Amino acid sequence: MNTPVRRVAIAVMAMILLLMGNLTYVQVVQAGDYRSDPRNQRVLLAEYSRKRGQINAENQILASSTETDDRLRYLRQYADGPVYAPVTGYYSVTYSSSGIERAADEVLNGSDDRLFGRRLSDLITGRDPSGGNVVLTLDPQVQQTAYDELTERGYTGSVVALRPQTGEILAMVSTPSFDPNPLASHDAEERKAAWQEYNEAEPPVLPNRAISESYPPGSTFKLVDVAAALASGRYTPDSQLTAASAITLQGTNTQLQNFNGNACGTGESASLRDALQRSCNTAFAQLAGELGEQALREQADAFGIGTTDLTVPMPVAASTIGDIPDTAALQQSSIGQRDVALTPLQNAMIVSAIANRGQVMAPYLVSEIQSQELDPVETTEPDRIGTAVDPGVAATLTELMVNNENNYSGSGKITGVQIAAKTGTAEHGADPKSVAPHVWYVAFAPADDPQVALAVLVESGGDRSNLAATGGTVAAPIGRAVIRAALGTER
After folding, report:
1. Residue 297 lies in a domain
2. Which among 177, 219, 371, 460 is annotated as catalytic?
3. Active-site residue 219, yes or no?
């Protein structure tokens, strides 16, 4: 073979090898990327040719698919869309998916390995393929009550309710909410208009505030302080702390005041019990300085604050107590301010752990995965992920929280049901004195046999002009109504 022919042969062979390498790269290495690319119309048409599984809770269908005569065979529909949208999310031709629709996509579209038997059967019999079903832990009555309580007042906020012994999420509400149905429409213009409206809404409607947003917890964080104090063995409910209306943060000239500048009682000192009930900032600043950063940080970690990989199954934003460079920062952090930031779910987990004798349970939304025939494929088992405090400390915290609730005013008290609670008022913003505070109510009930634990957050006091808003007046009535719904109790 002469040289020119040999060169041509080598060049052709090299091109064939490059072509084979490129085909291998496209069909093997990048296959997943191309398959999941939203611009891949073949994948899109294939997905919409299959009946997507249902999302339901207590036999109430929250999301389902209806057959149509459109090019896209099935239309996704949401019953009571805004009530459940933060949980179900949306499933859209154009805008992908969110919430359970995204987190449980492989079950709902039928590709999950747990549904392999049905897929094989469909292939053999020629039956139309379809997706599995997802059963949620939500209690529709509790969810509806929480949603109504927030929306009827026009509040921006969130409610999370848990079953303390298991971690089941009974309610997860975020308001203002949105209707996922227009995003699931087969009409491109309707989808586009809804997407623009939702993204331009103020306050925002698409985020799930319960798990994707974190807020300063204010005085609800004092439960963590008390837990650390009791666990140290150095303090009891009768331990004495300062009753001063204001103190100077250690190493600074900055004054820390109690709410409205009130003294913490009538004498020079106040018991830990009274300091918690009156929510005295000065007393807890003193307590934190005596406990030290390590004790407070370890206690926060034990309750789950700082966890970065929590899912329900949607990912949950991490809560934090932030950096604490000195004692002054520690004192500010002890009252739930400075860099302390909790999601409503995390705050609910704290009181849930207290209600559960100190045991921290993993929160979860999916109760069961079902086959296309509604047969159980997998059931979620409760998962204990740690111990926040020992049972004795949990019992003392419960006693103190009962004392709090019994001294709180406000509407919605439930006859015959003893609630254990803590309220919180949290400053925020660049100029916190001119902005209405975020307000909280965390609680569980009945105190002697807890069936529900919850956190209620109302952003900016429910009314940005309400600078005097408190957790007791704004958030507590909502929490009590949700507890009533969870317990099936009349007023």
Report:
1. yes
2. 219
3. yes
